[in-house]
């Protein structure tokens, strides 16, 4: 086991591409877990601050957010298929699609941060935009990992790439009681 991890670490440290993929994975997935932990308290706080007096239909909200994630994944498939057929120079590679997903996720978080306690409808749009980017992110990052990480060291490298993300999520969970929806 230690030999396998040592070889995986060597592969990881020797490749700038794999390091960048790991950084993107850590940052995106940590932000996703923060979102998962705090989106319901944030929407309830926004609604209780005068936007509406009714209860939030969390089941419908979750369902529509999962639909947005599925739409992001379908968008990835459609763009990837169109890119393979394109003769007009419109090439959206996996790294470009990942960049688009990360940029849109940043915009969604900016909307969440700015519109907390201001507008429940804009907050909902930001939530759904973030879930769309989640659907776009997973196939893009998976394709990049498959291309960048050699098959013989893939399991070890993937294990090592999850360590910073798990540490980040652990630290977030440790301090979740101190966080408020002001994180958004």
TrEMBL record:
UniProt xrefs under Pfam families: MFS_5
| Biological process per Gene Ontology, one example term | monoatomic ion transport
Q: Where are the transmembrane segments?
A: 20-38, 58-76, 97-116, 122-141, 153-176
Q: Which domain of life is it from?
A: Eukaryota
GO (cellular component) term, any one? plasma membrane
Q: How does it sit in the membrane?
A: Multi-pass membrane protein
Identify the keywords attached in UniProt to this record, alphabetized: Cell membrane, Ion transport, Membrane, Transmembrane, Transmembrane helix, Transport
Stated name of the protein? Molybdate-anion transporter
* Localization of this protein: Cell membrane
Among PANTHER family, the record links this protein to: MOLYBDATE-ANION TRANSPORTER, SAM (S-ADENOSYL METHIONINE) TRANSPORTER
Q: What functional role does this protein have?
A: Mediates high-affinity intracellular uptake of the rare oligo-element molybdenum.
């Amino acid at each position: 086991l230690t030999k396998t991890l040592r070889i995986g670490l060597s592969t990881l440290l020797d490749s700038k591409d794999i390091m960048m993929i790991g950084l993107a994975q850590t940052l995106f997935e940590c932000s996703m877990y923060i979102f998962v932990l705090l989106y319901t308290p944030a929407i309830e706080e926004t609604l209780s601050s005068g936007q509406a007096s009714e209860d939030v239909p969390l089941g419908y909200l979750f369902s529509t957010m999962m639909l947005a994630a599925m739409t992001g994944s379908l968008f990835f498939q459609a763009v990837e298929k169109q890119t393979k057929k394109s003769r007009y120079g419109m090439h959206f590679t996996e790294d470009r699609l990942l960049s688009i997903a990360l940029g849109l996720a940043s915009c969604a978080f900016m909307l969440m941060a700015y519109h907390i306690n201001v507008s429940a409808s804009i907050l909902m749009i930001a939530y759904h935009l973030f879930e769309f980017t989640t659907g776009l992110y997973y196939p893009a990052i998976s394709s990049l990992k498959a291309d960048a990480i050699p098959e013989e060291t893939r399991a070890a490298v993937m294990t090592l790439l999850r360590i910073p993300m798990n540490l980040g999520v652990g630290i977030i969970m440790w301090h979740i009681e101190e966080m408020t929806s002001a994180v958004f």
